[in-house]
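Person: I have long wanted to understand how a fold can be written as tokens. Underneath my words sits a plain record pairing an amino acid chain with its backbone structure tokens. Those tokens are not coordinates but codes from a learned vocabulary of shapes. I should like you to check that the lines agree and flag anything odd. The protein I mean follows directly.
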Amino acid sequence: MTAEHPGIEDAYGAEQAGERDAVLHAVSSAVLAVTRHLSVREVLQVIVRSAQTLLDARYAALGVPDDDGSFAEFVAEGVSDRQWEAIGPLPRQHGMLAALLREAAPVRLADIRQDPRFGWWPAAHPVLKDFIGVPIKDGENVLGILFLSNKRGPGGFTRRDESLLVLFAAHAAIAMTNARLYECVRELTVSEERTRMARELHDAVTQKLFSLRLTAQAASALLDADVERARAEIDTVRRLAGEALAELRAVIVEMRPAELDRHGLCETLRKHVSLLDRLSPVEMSFEGSVVEDLTPDTEVTVLRVAQESLHNALRHANASAIRVTLTTVGACVVLEVRDDGDGFVVEEPTLRGLGLLSMKDRAEVLEGTLTVVSAPGKGTVVRLEVPR
């Protein structure tokens, strides 16, 4: 290791015991993140925060490339949610980011803006000066790029900083690989569980529907001959229908979208809105922050209501802009989907046609509320409010 990275011996002299301990602590945090069964994104966040602390940098980021010239994951520290919204979509593989991926070697600069590989950044992007970046590699495969900027202390990043970050990146690769493997195993488990639930759903609901059919036929035959018995059979039909609906709801709630486990509610919504923004001519935006300690049922309900509301807005509203927000108000989590489209007269037949009555049912199951505010020419706001 020292022959390949000659600065490491300098970093680990006897007088550098404190720095060695800092590296070990940072590596330990990243590896322990996997053993705590955190999602891949959470492991990436631990890696970025650890690197930021290790090198005392103001900004730190980690990008995991995809095959489309962008990044499948991009995690940063030092940039607020408001700044991210102003900056815009995730970065593409260009400029220095592309160079790090292409060259797969450490880069340390006194001023990134003076390097010919530097391209540009959005107007709202923070100004970066001193810069250090390293690839995170598994053999020859680049898993991601880790880079930091604007060291808090004077003098910028040193050769010793580079050696520390290279060593840290080698251990971060292990943490990332293990996190991916754990996620694959979990997804396989979820897939197997969904197959099992589908079989159980088929068996249970098929039996209920068969009983419903027979009971309805019996009620129909008794209507003229014995009204009381027919009424009793119809009551049985109502009960069986309620049981079948309850079983369906229970299974649907259990079939939790895998994205929620992987990214959490806030990031899942952000990615969903970002995808729709790229696929449709409507300008779409998301604003929200991570909401802690939500139950699985609540996360699924909020996601489904958001998806249904977005589908309605894109299909029916003729909107030029749609905005999704996720906030907390007291003990409640609040979702709003707001468009500037045609609007409509809010009445029950319209709500039924748009599927909003089923969304109201979802809210009421969680003792929450769903309200729709709209008028012709005034756009529409769908607001879901459920206890946390």
The radius of gyration is 27 Å. Confidence is low (pLDDT under 50) at residues 1-12. The beta strands are 57-65, 71-77, 107-109, 131-138, 141-151, 283-288, 321-329, 332-339, 369-374, 380-387.
